[in-house]
Amino acid sequence: MNSIEPSVSAVPRIAVVGNGYVGSVVSACFAALGREVVGLEVDRSKLRSLRAGRAPLHEEGLDELLTVGIETGRLRFTDDVGEAVAASDVIFLCVGTPANGAGADLHALESVVRAIGATVEGDRVLVTKSTVPVGTVAWLGEVLEESVRRENGRPVGTFSLVANPEFLRQGTAVSDFLHPRRVILGGEDPLALEIVAEVYRPILRQGFPGGDPAMLPGLVRTTLASAEAVKYASNAFLAAKVSFINEMANICDRLGADVTVVAEGMGMDPRIGPEFLSAGIGWGGSCFGKDLDALIHAARAEGYEPELLHAVAAINRRQRSLAIEKLRDMLGGLGGRRVALLGLAFKPGTDDVRDAPALDLGRWLLDAGAEVTAYDPVVREVSRLPEVTVAPNAYDAAADADAVVLATEWPEFEELDMMKLADQMRGDLVLDGRNALDPEAVADAGLRYEGMGRPGVDSRRMALSMLPEDPEASVREVAEHAASDDAALRS
Question: Which of 314, 333, 357 is the last residue of a domain?
Answer without folding.
Answer: 314
